[in-house]
Amino acid sequence: MSAAFDPEAAARALLAVHGAAPRLPGLVPPPPDPDAAYAVQRAVIRALGGGAWKMALLAGRDRHAGALPGRGVVRSDALLPPLPADACIEVETALILGADLPAGATAAAAADAIAEVRLAFELVAPRLADRGTVLPLELMADGFGSAGIVLGDVLPDWRDGMTGPLGIALWLDERRVAVPETAASLAEAVDFLAWLAGHAAAQDLPLCQGDVIITGARIGPLPLDGARTARARAGGAAVSARFAGP
């Protein structure tokens, strides 16, 4: 980490936006490396409180994670505050931990720690004004742009491995959105969870019972385009959200 970069100052700037200040054009200076970006994440979570994580790829390539505030996790059909005009939505699966998971956990221990898997939305709205122009490490410092998680129903057959597509259907303002679904197996999620146990402990944010972990978009990100409702269904599980107007 460069001595010229101050993660606490970057975190204060992001926290101001969490508190309703205008979005930032970027972090000045930007984080010089992943360690610096993680230092910003830690400082933000110290202020807001943890309890959630997201799997992410830095620059679409290298596996990393975003530490997210637990207060950003809400239940299905919640009325959410206004979002920026460029906000996006993803349909995801969310792992809910039924036990603490320490560093060094095996894949078997990680699988055993999962209490349930729920259909979920992730909202994407960075504290940075134009995610198309900022550097990947700036988005990483900002929790990869996550703006909240909406937890839906438990997927009834998740223990069977979730191999192949789930058959997700998505509606925005009751308009069916026809988009392809990315398939991901439970085994892939478990592999990430075992890695995350070590990463989270190294960040002094160990995985705990009740933590929520989203494991990558199955649909999206898709622009909300001002939609006031969203709902999705996969088999016997559903998730929905309502969005307040500006």
UniProtKB/TrEMBL annotation:
SUPFAM superfamilies for this protein:
FAH
- The keyword Lyase belongs to this UniProt entry's keyword annotation: yes
Q: InterPro entries per the record?
A: Fumarylacetoacetase-like_C, Fumarylacetoacetase_C_sf, Hydratase-Decarb/MhpD_sf
Q: Which domain of life is it from?
A: Bacteria
Q: Which Pfam families match?
A: FAA_hydrolase
Q: Which UniProt keywords apply?
A: Lyase, Plasmid
- Cellular component, GO, one term: cytoplasm
* Gene Ontology MF annotations: 2-oxopent-4-enoate hydratase activity
Give the matching PANTHER family: 2-KETO-4-PENTENOATE HYDRATASE, ACID HYDRATASE
Name of the protein in its database record? Hydratase
This protein's species is: Paracoccus pantotrophus (Thiosphaera pantotropha)
